[in-house]
Amino acid sequence: MRRLLLLLTLVAVPLSSHAIEEPDYTIIKTFDKVELRQYASYVVAQVVLDSSAEDAGNQAFPILAGYIFGKNKGEKKFAMTAPVTQTAVPVRMDMTAPVTQTAVSGGMRVQFVLPKGVTLATAPEPIDTRVQLRVVPSGTWAVIRYAGSWSQSNYLEHLRALKASLDTAGVATQGEPVLARYNAPFTPWFMRRNEIWLALR
Fold first, then answer.
1. For residue 12, is it within any domain?
2. How does pLDDT run across 24-43, given as a tens digit for each residue?
3. What's the domain count of the chain?
4. Edge-to-edge strands of the sheet including 139-146?
5. Are residues 67 and 30 in the same domain?
6. The pTM is what?
7. What whole-number distance in Å separates Cα of residue 114 and Cα of residue 123?
């Protein structure tokens, strides 16, 4: 499975993140190492997995790559875009579950951005029922960019830095943080573009 994942990544994702398409955004303001960005809406293919943050990407990639490489009704293929995003799904109480069972749900949501011009009406239906199509609405996000590994410690270090800068600036956010990855695993750590996004309130 790991060899398949690496092969798919090598084929799909170029070394430089600037060589592939990204969602449109406008930078509203910058301070410290933070950008406030206004994003236009875009369409994604996503999967929600009962997985840890560390394992979600590896588990989700072959599922979502299958969809964009033609595992859909119509066998339509899409170009790879960036970023691949990952965020925790908030835990919710399931009021219909028996009290003797675990009455919560959650997991990790991983999304592939579909190319510009693709809509919910024109995107082919996934064959794999785990793949969902949805529109990410336009919105404003606080973003910090950093290089290095995809380790949880590196992520948490920069999430703390982002939150500290936003607190100092008096900028309120909402929802779960989003990890955005722009490069393939074989990209040297010092050349990677990683970002953390927080939605503005």
1. no
2. 999 999 999 999 999 999 99
3. 2
4. 25-31, 34-39, 139-146, 194-200, 173-181, 84-93, 104-113, 42-49, 132-136
5. no
6. 0.85
7. 9
